Amino acid sequence: MRALVQRVLRAQVMVDAQVVGRIDRGLLVYLGVAPADTQDEARWLAQKLAGLRIFDDEQGKLNLSVASVKGRVLAISNFTLLADATEGRRPEFGGAASGQVAQALYDEFCKALEAAGVPLAKGIFGASMLIESQADGPVNVVIDRVAKGKDSP
Q1: Whole-angstrom Cα distance, residue 40 to residue 140?
Q2: Helix H segments across 1-149?
Q3: pLDDT tens by residue, 22-52
Q4: N or C: which end of the chain has fewer CB within 10 A?
């Protein structure tokens, strides 16, 4: 499982010219699911994000989590995060899970994030989405979680 996490001042996602998810201060999270990923990785990643200290404290140090600043998360499913572009010019997407597997784990990730007390907005799984954001910092973090005992994507 791979997450691209961006600290934002605001973000929104639109499908068919309709806003389906919007946040102010918080995290824009693109989530890619690999074939070997399980609910354990989804829950681990949700807990990691809930406590990830990438917001400034009073001294300007990255010591506060999204929960600490009463921020929100906008979660977007994104199979292209698992692309392999090491050879040629066209990325290979074989490292991404099937839609059925990915949707179940995306849903589990979102459920676990809400259970951790983080308010959540979402895109629509599998839809063509237009995402707008205003980066803050910029602060961007990539988090990889490989299923234990499994090969990496």
Answers
A1: 24
A2: 39-51, 99-115
A3: 999 999 999 999 999 999 999 999 999 999 9
A4: C
Task: Give the E-state strand segments of the chain in sequence order.
Answer: 2-15, 18-23, 26-32, 55-56, 62-64, 72-77, 120-122, 130-144
Rounded distance, CA 33 to CA 145, Å?
A: 10
b or e along 101-129 (b: 16 or more beta carbons within 10 Å of the residue's beta carbon)? Answer: bbebbbebbbebbeebebebbbbbbeeeb
Residue spans of the domains in the chain: they are 2-144
For range 102-107, the mean pLDDT? 98
Distance of alpha carbon 18 from alpha carbon 29, whole angstroms = 20
pLDDT tens across 113-149, in order?
999 999 999 999 999 999 999 999 999 999 998 766 5
